[in-house]
């Protein structure tokens, strides 16, 4: 039985573990966090990724946990409503597309794997050494174990990628923006509603999903690469407060609540671009290999599909891991490229450059319900996302290895 270590226990890691176990392989998941990460932000599952969820028999559970968002409201600096949009159109969703909180999806995937997959929490990899027998892994605790293969499913700032391929600066491409998300009290009493306050070069939002007693604050801003300590949360909070210090609406109140946020997150909106996703007995999947950035709206879908394809490729290739990794890349490369293309165009609508652009966007929102051909206009918004989300045909890898 092939023993495979997966670094990262979130969407890509847990999905990969599920399918590897299905095909008779033996996955172990190591996760840096002391327990499963809860919370997070809204994510979308579309197209081919829905097919993967369906094959895992999780589609009904995913839909039961959908955010059920209803409307997006745009307000000016004084809180006056200047435009509205359906939540489906705001998120670029149509048909069977579903939106779910990242933490809820992670919980569902963990529940589907925890009984027959070994999870090691509060641990991380510090060294990888390939031998004729496999990969000798050294953990932060000092323990060492041998595995046949290692897969990095550990996100944008992948530890496995750094150990295997080198500094992340070679692979991270900054898209000129930053994002911050954290939990705040629902002082606006929002119910399945997203509030957005756009300003030139900056955008602030707040939303609360179905069955949620709190809310999420969302900050987006354009900026060249910033220098800060990625592990110093206090420094990052100060940075965000300075950047948005003069913004109106409820921004001061959200920034005050930031101090008590248990899940503060700030990072650049960047893509991972690599010529290859494997080296020897080590491979990457999900954001670690081809993170398309939050601006694409497709990071979760790429993680789900990529994990499925990687597991299937390993199952059908038997002991030839090199052939499996090559097949995985061939199958996924076009799909990845099509979804990464979405980010640049999406960012143009997420963070507007000038007050004039904001006024025009709000005018179009008010006029859209009354314009002839409005349905075609809506289709033009969702069409690129639909094409990218379905730019791969999901194969059937059901025949497990001997």
UniProtKB/TrEMBL annotation:
<protein>
    <submittedName>
        <fullName>FAD-dependent oxidoreductase</fullName>
    </submittedName>
</protein>
<feature type="domain" description="FAD-binding">
    <location>
        <begin position="2"/>
        <end position="338"/>
    </location>
</feature>
<dbReference type="InterPro" id="IPR036188">
    <property type="entry name" value="FAD/NAD-bd_sf"/>
</dbReference>
<dbReference type="InterPro" id="IPR051704">
    <property type="entry name" value="FAD_aromatic-hydroxylase"/>
</dbReference>
<dbReference type="GO" id="GO:0071949">
    <property type="term" value="F:FAD binding"/>
</dbReference>
<dbReference type="Pfam" id="PF01494">
    <property type="entry name" value="FAD_binding_3"/>
</dbReference>
<dbReference type="InterPro" id="IPR002938">
    <property type="entry name" value="FAD-bd"/>
</dbReference>
């Amino acid at each position: 039985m092939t023993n495979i270590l997966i670094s990262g226990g979130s969407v890509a890691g847990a999905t990969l573990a599920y399918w590897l176990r299905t095909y008779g392989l033996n996955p172990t998941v190591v996760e840096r966090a002391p327990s499963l990460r809860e919370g997070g932000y809204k994510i979308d599952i579309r197209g081919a990724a829905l097919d993967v969820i369906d094959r895992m028999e999780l589609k009904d559970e995913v839909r039961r946990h959908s955010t059920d968002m209803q409307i997006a409201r745009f307000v000016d600096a004084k809180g006056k409503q200047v435009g509205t949009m359906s939540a489906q159109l705001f998120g670029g969703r149509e048909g069977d597309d579903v939106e779910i909180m990242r933490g809820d999806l992670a919980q569902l995937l963990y529940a589907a794997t925890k009984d027959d997959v070994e999870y090691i929490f509060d641990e991380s990899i510090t060294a990888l050494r390939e031998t004729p027998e496999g990969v000798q892994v050294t953990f932060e605790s000092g323990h060492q174990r041998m595995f046949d293969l290692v897969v990095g499913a550990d996100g944008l700032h992948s530890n496995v990628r750094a150990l295997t391929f080198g500094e992340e600066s070679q692979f991270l491409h900054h898209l000129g923006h930053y994002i911050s998300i954290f939990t705040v009290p629902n002082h606006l009493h929002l119910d399945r509603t997203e509030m957005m306050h756009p300003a030139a070069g900056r955008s602030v939002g707040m939303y609360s999903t179905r069955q949620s007693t709190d809310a999420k604050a969302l900050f987006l801003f354009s900026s060249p690469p910033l220098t800060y300590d990625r592990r110093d949360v206090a420094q990052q909070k100060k940075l965000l407060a300075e950047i948005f210090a003069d913004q109106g609406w409820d921004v001061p109140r959200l920034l005050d609540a930031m101090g008590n946020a248990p899940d503060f997150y700030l990072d650049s909106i960047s893509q991972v671009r690599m010529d290859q996703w494997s080296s020897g007995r080590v491979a990457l999947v999900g954001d670690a290999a081809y993170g398309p950035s939050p601006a694409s709206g497709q990071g979760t879908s790429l993680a789900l599909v990529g994990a499925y394809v990687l597991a299937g490729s390993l199952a059908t290739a038997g002991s030839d891991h090199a052939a499996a990794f090559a097949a995985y890349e061939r199958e996924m490369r076009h799909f990845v490229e099509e979804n990464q293309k979405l980010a640049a165009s999406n960012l143009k609508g997420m963070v507007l450059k000038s007050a004039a652009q904001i006024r025009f966007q709000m005018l179009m929102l008010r006029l859209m319900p009354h314009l002839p051909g409005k349905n075609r206009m809506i289709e033009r918004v969702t069409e690129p996302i639909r094409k990218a989300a379905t730019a791969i045909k999901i194969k059937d890898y059901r025949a497990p290895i001997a």
